[in-house]
From TrEMBL:
Keyword Transmembrane listed: no
Residue ranges that the Swiss-Prot or TrEMBL entry lists as coiled coil: none
Region Disordered, residue ranges: 1-25, 419-464
Highest classification ranks of the organism: Bacteria, Bacillati, Actinomycetota, Actinomycetes, Kitasatosporales
Pfam families documented for this protein: TPR_16
PANTHER family: SUPPRESSOR OF RPS4-RLD 1 (PTHR44749), TETRATRICOPEPTIDE-LIKE HELICAL DOMAIN-CONTAINING PROTEIN (PTHR44749:SF1)
Superkingdom in the source lineage: Bacteria
Residues making up the signal peptide according to the UniProt record: none
Name of the protein described by the UniProt record: Tetratricopeptide repeat protein
Sequence ranges of Basic and acidic residues compositional bias: 1-12
InterPro entries registered for this protein in UniProt: SRFR1-like, TPR-like_helical_dom_sf, TPR_rpt
Length: 464
């Protein structure tokens, strides 16, 4: 049966702003043009409806999605202002869950994971079955280094709302645990659940990242190119393609893609990667320009509330003042006890000459389960500095086995270090085999006890 048409019915497909509003409300990526349309639509609306808390929350989420797509941290203060306005109109105590969830996402995007956790927990305390709180909690607990908490939040999310956001977080949790196959399967499920090209492209990009991390640049390149065909504005996939091309020996094309990606999303990590690629190609002057850009971008982000201390600390440890890197990363470790912070602090301590303390943090980075060639390389070099050749050999082999292309600078250094250490001496430990033939020991012979004789059965006459 088909009911008669009603006044409010609209058979037209959703417009760009409606598509973007649906995407950001579901915690999913949105197309660049749709986000621009949504921002313009909501800005026009709130100009004449200043007390519409829901529209302020949508506008703040749209600003946040613009920041994610463009890597322009100037969008973060605008998002914060819009979300605070929404909370002024309808406070958190009255259940303004959309604004509260977006505030948590904003804090996570700025890498202020402690604040992100507080907003997520506030939503969960008021509405435990509201699924949008759990992606915020997964990201926050991961950034804080509470991987058990992240896994519990992910399991609840999968139970409440299995879909793109849930499968993406599940893949992230499994990757951090070192369960590569589970991470790939979850991300493939996310790609299958994607409904819009931007969502599909994001899932393909993440599949490319997983392939890259396990040392398969050919498969990674295929996934990155699939993401770019699906959404040509996917700048993260463009940077991934540059990484894969560099691993395949196509340095000129890699430099081109890195420059294009930096033009769209100027983030410190990409500048550092391009600087290392240029350094490996012998283009020292261009590499220095990129290394200087790392600090410039980090300062810009810091002015907008973004925490880039891990990337900046690693840059300072390798190309600046290791002591300053130790101070910066020690403060970062106090805030966020993640594997990334532990690895960076361990490396900075090693570069500053404190190898014993460095090893403790390197262990904190490598033992939770994440398979990272960079982490293994850092630990190997620290162990080598301490004279532990067996440990250094083992972790250098692990780094090259995990991803032999992990860095155009550190990858060749890892191979050189492994060749310099060499293999263990032949023969193994002394006296591994007994020096005399084995002789069966003389055991005492058993001395069996005599069993008692059964008593004679009484005659019938005796019982009378």
């Amino acid at each position: 049966m088909i009911r008669p048409a009603r006044t409010g019915d609209d058979a037209r497909p959703p417009g760009p702003s409606e598509r973007a509003a649906t995407a950001v409300g579901m915690g999913a990526p949105a197309a660049a043009a749709d986000v621009v349309a949504l921002v313009a639509d909501r800005e026009k609306w709130v100009a004449s409806h200043a007390d519409d808390d829901a529209s302020w929350a949508v506008l703040g989420s749209a600003y946040l999605e613009q920041a994610r797509r463009t890597a322009d941290s100037a969008w973060y203060p605008k998002a914060e202002k819009a979300l605070k306005r929404s909370l002024e109109v309808r406070p958190a105590e009255k259940g303004n869950f959309d604004a509260m969830t977006a505030m948590g996402s904003l804090a996570n995007a700025r890498r202020d994971f402690g604040t992100g956790r507080k907003w997520g927990e506030l939503v969960r305390a008021q509405a435990p079955r509201r699924w949008t709180a759990y992606p915020v909690l997964v990201d926050a607990y991961t950034g804080l280094g509470d991987y058990k908490g992240a896994q519990k939040a992910m399991e609840v999310l999968l139970e409440l709302r299995p879909g793109l956001a849930a499968h993406v977080r599940a893949s992230q949790v499994y990757r951090d645990r070192g369960w590569r196959e589970d991470a790939v399967v979850s991300m493939e499920s996310a790609a299958a659940a994607a409904k819009a090209p931007a969502e599909k492209a994001y899932a393909l990009f993440r599949l490319g990242e997983l392939s890259w991390e396990r040392g398969d640049p050919v498969e990674a390149l295929r996934q990155y190119e699939g993401a770019l065909r699906t959404d040509p504005a996917q700048a993260e996939a463009l940077a991934g393609r540059a990484r894969a091309l560099a691993a395949l020996g196509r340095g000129g094309e890699a430099v081109r893609d890195y420059r294009m990606a930096l033009g769209r999303t100027p983030v410190p990590q990409l500048a550092r990667e391009l600087g290392e690629l240029l350094e490996s190609l012998g283009r020292e002057e261009e590499a220095r320009a990129q290394y200087e850009a790392v600090e410039t971008m980090a300062v810009r982000d810091g002015a907008n509330g973004v925490d880039d201390d891990v990337v900046l600390g690693l840059y300072e440890a390798d190309h600046g003042d290791p002591a300053a890197a130790v101070r910066r990363l020690s403060q970062e470790w106090e805030r966020h006890k993640s594997m990334q912070a532990a690895d960076a602090l361990g490396w900075a301590l090693h570069r500053a000459g404190d190898h014993t303390a460095a090893l403790e943090y390197a262990k904190k980075a490598t033992e939770p389960g994440l398979r990272s060639a960079d982490f293994a390389y850092h630990r190997a070099m620290i162990e080598r500095a301490l004279g532990d050749e067996a440990g250094a050999r083992r972790h250098l082999q692990e780094a090259l086995r995990t991803n032999p292309y992990f860095s155009p600078v550190r990858g060749p250094l890892a191979k050189e270090a492994l060749a310099a250490i060499g293999q263990p001496p032949p023969g193994g430990p002394e006296h591994l085999q007994p020096v005399t033939p084995w002789v069966e020991p003389e055991l005492p012979k058993p001395n069996p006890q005599p069993s008692p004789k059964p008593s004679a059965k009484p005659s019938p006459s005796a019982t009378r």
